Amino acid sequence: MTPERAGEWRTAIPSRRWAVALIVAWAAAFAVSVVTDTGPCSPADPSVCGPDTGFAVFLVPLLATPVLLWLRPVLGAAAGVVFAVGDVALDDHLPANVAFGLVGAGCAVHLWRILSGRRRQRLLTAGDRVPGPVSEHAQPDSWDLVRVGAAGLLLLGALGLAGWYAKSVAVEEDRLARSVVVDGDVAAVDDVDYLLDVALGDGGARRTVTVPVLEPTDHTVGASVPVLLDPAAPDRSTLVAEPPDHTGWLSAALGAATAAALLLVAEVRRRRAVRELWVGGAPRSEVVVLPDGSGSVMLLPVGGAGGSGGRHALRPLGRVSVAFAVPRASDDSAVDAGGEPDADGEPDVDGEPDVDGATYADGPGVDGATYADGPGPDDELDLETTRRLEAEAVALFGQVWRDEVHWTAMLDDDDLAGLEVPVEQSATVVGSLHEGGYVLVVTEHEVLVPDGPVRPATDGGWQERGAAAGRGALDALRRTVTGADADGDAVVPADPGSIREEGPPGHAVAPGPVTGTVVVGTTQARRAVGVALVLAGLLGGPAWVRWMTEGDWFQALSAAFAAVTVLLAGARRALTEVRGESSGLTVVTGTWRYQVPWPSFHGVRRDGTGLWLAWEPFTEVELPAVTGGTDAGRRAEDLARALAGLAAHAGRAAGAEATVRPGHPGPAVRREPGPALALLVLLVVGVAAAWWA
């Protein structure tokens, strides 16, 4: 699978943007159907507002469409078509027919494009075939107990919901059999709890019953309404025009049963595919695989993971979730003396070098420290030593941030002991390689059994992150951690944020030419969304407190909290800006303003179309979507290089000059409130005034 063929393979399937567009269209159609359905309930035709079994059935594909369009595109598109056909056939509401008809047509086109694209993908990978079994071990025949258990619970829930629906219908039929229609006058309208007080009878026999109502504003005091009165239980009386609707339980039961069926069918398909692929004879494709840290492997084209091959080089083909691994041969399970597999698959003998080249019995450990010659991790250190070690930890963080050393250098012994470093390696994909298909991933020593079909890989910066961390990761591990603390001092545990979890985001950039002042903002679309959110918080919060809380202090506090959250989210989008000058860096995140001297600046990394900045000691700030358009990645790279160039010109962020001398950290970083503080004060004043009013 070359990068060029990978590009053709990827473009055979419609982009996920089409799924997003269909989801937005579905939401618009749903809104149109609700807003335009203004017909009043009628005593002459109770079915207008009464239970509709057909709609209850078709409600399942209606609600499943947007979810499945994203998770299971074929099923989602099919659900959209099914509901559109049902809506046109059963619903006499023209605006809804038109809106969902258009969505259904779009889903039909999307479904055809997906199926034809998958056929094209199968043709592109229908080359050589596996001559024999993929492993000497017997094929796995186990069930996914989590999936099967979830399906079983859903089925039990569906049975319970269906039973409750049947019981509710039976109770309602008994009530209807003994009820009588009585005309009454509306005595009071409760538009908060959606209730009507209806006076029944004349003279001394006059009494009042309370009935639920769908639209209180459709009724006025004194108006005559027919009531279905239950003599045995007057408090269960209802309006003739609005019979109780219990079909929601039916929809829930059908939804649970459908979800259970999807899980069971997926598990049966997976097991059948694994059985068929295990014996050989299936198509195979050579790829590069890279673990993504979440139980899946990314499939990359051959020649692309190393950084060559054009614009498709670092774009993954897809993602395969891995259930478990099976050794290819019976001798691929070497263990060390303690019974645990060694890193290189060979038995460990006392005195023989381990993965990092250290013999623990008579030499330095993983971090190069011989604790017999220096303070151990639990020893008390004097103030000067502590400060020196803290400064070294800060310096190491900066080196990791600039990709000068591998990120695993930040880990201590315990972290490294259980670390599985993501390493790219060549692999063979056995099976029909297309989105939605099941494949086995065969590496040099093991067969990765899938937990699900091939899924689209997330675009963004993961592939650059993965490739940078994966290339020669074991070699980098050997180079960096063995000499990290060769003088025998214990490493002071630092708090380097995300680096201790999965490595720094994105990739470091080379310094570019110095071009004067560099200003980095965000896209116009993101800024417009931010302005809209700020206005929504400033205006919506006081308005909600003034007119919607009705003096309830808890509702007022909830509205104020929501308004503050919306306002701060908008401020981060609209007001984020970075200005790099010869004197230093000014970073405005909306909430805060940072003044960062260049000697305290660790560096800049690019992650997709966004940038990440870091400064002492371990502060990281994300600038998402600093630019847009078709060449957004290149322009984001240019901005990152310009900032790195300014930092390098100041002698801080490139080469040997970037290393902080032990005990000599850079100048202090100043932090002060950002422009969002003024907006927050305005909001608080507005909410207080609204509450007072």
TrEMBL record:
**Organism of origin:** Georgenia muralis
Keywords recorded for this protein, A-Z = Membrane, Transmembrane, Transmembrane helix
* Protein's name according to its UniProt entry: Uncharacterized protein
Region of interest (Disordered), ranges: 331-381
Q: Where is the composition biased (Acidic residues)?
A: 339-355
Membrane-spanning intervals of the chain: 18-35, 55-84, 96-115, 145-166, 248-266, 528-547, 553-571, 674-692
